[in-house]
Amino acid sequence: MNIGSLLTRHARYRPGHTAVVFNKRRFSFSEFNLRVNRLANALLELGVSKGDKIATILPNCLELLEVYWAVAKIGAVVVPLSTLTRGKGLVNLLQDSDVTTVVTNPDLVDEVDAIKQDLRGVGSDRYLLTGEATTIIASGYRSYSQLTSAASDQNPQGIEITDEDLFNIIYSSGTTGQPKGIVHTHYIRAMYCTLFAAAYRIRPESIILHAGSIVFNGAFLTLMPSMYVGATYILQEQFKPKEFIETIERERVTHVKMVPSQIVAMINAPNFSAEALASLEMIGAVGAPLHLEHKEKLNRVLPGRFYELYGLTEGFVTILDKNDYAAKANSVGAPPPFFEMRIIKEDGTEAATGEVGEIVGRGPILMPGYYKRPDLTDQAIVNGWLHTGDLGYVDEDGFLFLVDRMKDLIITGGCNVFPRDIEEIIVQHPGVREAAVFGVPSEKWGETPMAAVILRETGVVSEDQLRDWINERVDSKLQRVHAVVLMEDFPRSAAGKTLKRVMREPYWAGRGTRI
Which helix (H) or strand (E) is 245 found in, with range? Predict the structure, then answer.
């Protein structure tokens, strides 16, 4: 299972079909294959060998896509890193992953230059820079464009790649703490190709649009199937709701994968309409639960398109299919074929139907482990089952209902309070756009809920008014929020996930007011 063979195959059998669109540039499979071959051969000439680690510190760009597929062809390993990671954090990831080559762009040169002296494994000639030659010469980097333009455009030969060979190391987004290097092999990514193409009904005629960061593993849910079937993949530099909708309408896009904050922004965009988005066959939510209020608005305007995926980069997922939404709107679906799931109580026994416990699962995309961390691997995977750290229950039909993350659970007065239950209430307020609830210290209760809120328009409701509105509607006194803080935006990971720990940490570190 060499996923690098996919592009070679499409370049031969459907050479003229549009493979990639980035900004105003369009490439057929034949054209894109030649570009990838040049990069693959340039890397080999640079001394990159099978198994070597290549880090990308790039925003969404054509070169990042080229690195993914060039690495696949030569058996190297790509380590895609967020452009938001800087300083010591960046050094730690580059050192931890044993990177030998770094690809970045002129905007990030100063950040990379500042840490070069701390990178032991990267050769002085292994810093590649996309962009203008003048910038490269001045900075002492190797020119990405010059290297590729001088290299052969023939498919690399003589490199044997097996199922177990590594394709990438994805570092966790850090929503729950220290990032860990999650290993994916060619076999695992091949399973992404087949399983998600089937689940999302992606065909050779499909047109996929992605505007989220493609260093985030959620991007591979459509990127891999797109290359597998030979569909058209449109990549945007960044997510801008109005432009996103315009692209869907202009290009007749069929499939999009988005995090909840992007879906909320899209449905609140001035040009959001059923007519503009009529071509869509799939709107996939990933990364965090989408609150019911937003699901219902989306499905009123665009019925029969919504899919929701619950999953971990480590390798377990459930999918709510568009045809199951009407009956199971609050669910995150069921395990796809070849996956298994259990709900486990604290004592290790299996929970009954409707009983909350930890979600554990296994399937064909399960990681072999965290890179160089067998200790953490053994904690996460026990007897072949991935322990997710998430709480949920299954109904009588076996559909999973996600309750919350164990680490987000609020224990107030000795009782469990799930933030998501409160968030579902808050987003029903007509002035609220997004909400995040987390626990802060309480002298009386141990913990008490606090709500951070983004309003649709400034001034439509005050913090105290919103707090009172929420507390009149929650199901229990324990769910009452002690305070509401209004924010312009939430801290988010590169994947667009809301970072509750960043909002919560000052209170627990003593830098915030003790409630």
Answer: helix 241-251
| Residue located via tokens 């069929």 | 254
Residue 511: how many other CB atoms lie within 10 Å? 8
291: left (phi over 0), alpha (psi -120 to 50) or beta: beta
Distance of CA 280 to the CA centre of its chain: 21
Is the pLDDT confidence value at 515 over 50? no
**Considering only CA atoms, which of 79, 256, 250, 288 is closest in space to residue 180?**
79
Taking Cα atoms as reference points, which of 265, 50, 70 lies closest to residue 153?
Answer: 70
The rounded distance, in Å, linking the Cα atoms of 498 and 125 is: 38
Cα–Cα dist 141/349, whole Å: 57
Q: What is the CA radius of gyration of the chain?
A: 23
Nearest Cα residue to 262 out of 100, 394, 433: 433
Tens digits of residue pLDDT in 208-256? 999 999 998 999 999 999 999 999 999 999 999 999 999 999 999 999 9
- DSSP letters for 60-120: S-HHHHHHHHHHHHHT-EEEEE-TT--HHHHHHHHHHTTEEEEEE-GGGHHHHHTTGGG-S
Q: Give 79's strand partners.
A: 55
**Per-residue buried b or exposed e for 73-104, using 16+ beta carbons within 10 Å of the residue's own CB:** bbbbbbbbbbbebeeebbbebbebbbbbbbbb
Tally of CB atoms within 10 A around 172: 19
Q: What does DSSP say about strands 282-285 and 255-258: parallel, antiparallel, or unpaired?
A: parallel
Query: Between these two residues, 190 and 443, which has the higher pLDDT value?
Result: 190
Q: Which amino acid is at 126?
A: R
> Hey, what are 324's tokens?
């199951």
Dump pLDDT digits (tens) for 95-150.
999 999 999 999 999 999 999 989 988 988 899 999 865 555 556 789 999 999 99
Hey, what domains does the chain have and what are their CATH numbers? Answer: 5-12+22-153 (3.40.50.980), 188-405 (3.40.50.12780), 413-508 (3.30.300.30)
Burial class (CB in 10 A: 0-12, 13-18, 19+), 251: middle
Distances (CA, A) of 156 to 55, 151, 163, 344: 21, 11, 19, 48
Cα angle: 52, vertex 221, 401; to 5 degrees? 125
Task: Provide the phi-psi class of 414: left if phi over 0, else alpha when psi is between -120 and 50, else beta.
Answer: left
